Amino acid sequence: DVPAKDRADAGTVRINDAIRAACGDLPSASFDFDSAALSPSAGQAFASLAKCFTTGALKGRTLRVVGHTDSRGEAQYNIALGHRRAGSVSALLAQKGMDKGRLETSSKGAIEATGTDEEGMARDRRVDIFLAPAQ
Fold first, then answer.
1. Beta-carbon-side half-sphere exposure of residue 58 (alpha carbons within 13 Å)
2. What tens-digit pLDDT sequence spans the chain (135 residues)?
3. Gap between the Cα atoms of 71 and 90, Å rounded
4. Please, how many CA atoms are within 13 Å of residue 30, restricted to the half-sphere of its CB?
5. What is the pTM of this model?
6. How far is the C-alpha of 79 from the C-alpha of 99, rounded, in Å?
7. Maximum Cα–Cα distance across the chain
8. Segment holding 103, helix H or strand E
9. What is the spatial distance between Cα 128 and Cα 135, in angstroms, rounded to a whole number?
10. Which letter, b or e, does each residue of 61-71 get, where b requires 16 or more Cβ atoms within 10 Å of its Cβ?
């Protein structure tokens, strides 16, 4: 089996540059086409990220987790899949120690999808993680 991160049909978890700058180098994570299941390597990636938000440089801050899909499928299905992807990431972060109250999830479904070939559509299948505005 080829790991999801090495396949053309894999989606990715993208962590905003501001978070990377504060937390240091963070491993990447991925998931399969039409799936919200994260790769086995996601545990390590999210343990490092959760630590940064619980005891590290971003302690007490809130994450915004946004799920995306490619343009295939019905709009309602894609919004739901984006929510499942964002939920999978949030659940794993909570499992790694993040306060659930500091995790905001949403879905854009295929609203921002631009891919027209398999490589482009793979980029559309993602979860983006941003630092929520300070309150």
1. 24
2. 434 444 455 689 999 999 999 999 888 888 777 889 888 878 888 999 999 999 999 999 999 999 999 999 999 999 999 999 999 999 999 999 999 999 999 999 999 999 999 889 988 999 999 999 887
3. 23
4. 16
5. 0.89
6. 25
7. 45
8. strand 103-109
9. 21
10. bbbbbbbbbbb
d(C-alpha 30, C-alpha 40), whole Å: 9
Give the Cα separation of 90 and 101 in Å (integer).
10
Of 11, 13, 35, give the one whose Cα is nearest residue 90: 13
C-alpha dist (Å) from residue 2 to 31, 32, 45, 70: 12, 11, 19, 21
CA-based nearest residue to 85, from 126, 54, 124: 126
- 39, two tokens: 């790769």
